[in-house]
Amino acid sequence: MTRSIPLSLGLALSLALLAGPARAVEGTLTLYTSQPNTDAQQSVDAFMAAYPDVTVTFVRDGTTKIMAKLEAELAAGSTPADVLLIADSVTMEGLKARDLLMAHPEADTAAYAEGIHDPDKTWFGTKLITTGIIYNTAATMVPSSWEDLLKDEAKGQVAMPSPLTSGAALIHTATLVDNLDAGWGYYEALAANGAQASGGNGGVLKQVAGGEKLYGMVVDFLPIREKAKGAPVEFVFPEEGVSTISEPVAILASTQNPEAAKAFVDFLISREGQELALSQGYLPAHPDVAVPAGFPDRASIKVMPFDAARALGEADANTKRFAEIFGQ
User: Fold this and answer.
1) For residue 301, what pLDDT is reported?
2) Around Cβ 305, how many Cβ atoms within 10 Å?
């Protein structure tokens, strides 16, 4: 899942300009992240180009494993982590509820739409990674709506990640339940139509690209990237809207270098940081930054509302309900 994309000359110049007023920020910073290794290295390198007096090291793993590591360290009394950059806002809400995150009230979020960042400024979205519909080009039905996955043509042909193993899938489930008229009835209809739920997004891509299934629910950049490489897949942003994860960044309350940590957050949500996300092939969260190749115009992508705090409170009930419906 890594993408090795060099920084553009324009972005490099912008980063150099940022470096001027940043010289007062110094020291070391440790980042815990679930970003792919290449993306994490690019993020760190770009930040250090803008803030040359800060040395950043990072620890990378999946969100579940990185959180397990963090929790074990916190239970033992301390963690070297200063900044956390992971997949989903629900996990961040859990840390916020335990007073483990440091607020950054000075962060400039004026350009962003409501809901991208925590209103209390303890975590900040860095991307918009949507979940929509993937289909194999051999499919006879071209879906345009979530309801299309309930049609006879899709019977036994739908794959999706399970919220029992995927944070993005848990957010997607909560979003559809809250926004589709049928609520949980939609998932009951999917199960009745033979949809299968297991694993994560990578497995869904593999099944649909390989022809084992014709349709699936998946995060956007996977099929868009694979289509560009020649895979027989297409990606659809359904007409009702899509769910999103925002790969939020947050400062741990225990950080030993709060000024550098704030600078790291500021960089990621700055115009320059969002241009970096674009160069990595993601849909930037900043509304004024362009979309990657293969994505439709930003205005045509309808994002469904999502309440991270509410989803945190309902997470156990939602996973239990999903497991009951799909027999997991």
Assistant:
1) 94
2) 11
Question: How do residues 10-53 score in pLDDT, each as one tens digit?
Answer: 444 444 444 444 447 999 999 999 998 999 999 999 999 999 99
Whole-number Å distance between alpha carbons of 145 and 48: 43
pTM for the model stands at: 0.82
What sign results for the dihedral spanned by CA atoms 108, 112, 113, 115? Answer: negative
**Residue 19, pLDDT score:** 43
Distance of alpha carbon 215 from alpha carbon 70, whole angstroms: 36
Same domain, 203 and 308: yes
- For residue 303, the model assigns a pLDDT of 94
Number of domains in the chain: 2
Same domain, 141 and 154: yes
Are both 96 and 135 inside the same structural domain?
A: no
Shared domain for 112 and 240, answered yes or no, is: no
Domain check: are 29 and 178 in the same one?
A: no
> Domain for residue 1, yes or no?
no
* CATH number of the domain encompassing residue 64: 3.40.190.10
pLDDT of residue 166: 86
- Look at residue 64 in the predicted model and tell me its pLDDT: 83
Same domain, 115 and 154: no
- Low-confidence residues of the chain: pLDDT under 70: 1-23
* Integer Cα distance of 59 and 37 in angstroms: 9
Are 95 and 147 in a shared domain?
Answer: no
Q: How far lies 248's CA from each of 50, 223, 265, in Å?
A: 20, 22, 10
| Phi-psi category of residue 182: left, alpha or beta, with phi > 0 → left and psi -120 to 50 → alpha | alpha
Would you state the pLDDT for residue 90? 93
Q: Is residue 219 located within the same domain as residue 265?
A: no
88 closest CA partner among 162, 164, 169: 169
Residue 282 counted as domain residue: yes
**C-alpha closest to that of 245 among 209, 220, 266:** 220
CA distance 184 to 168: 18
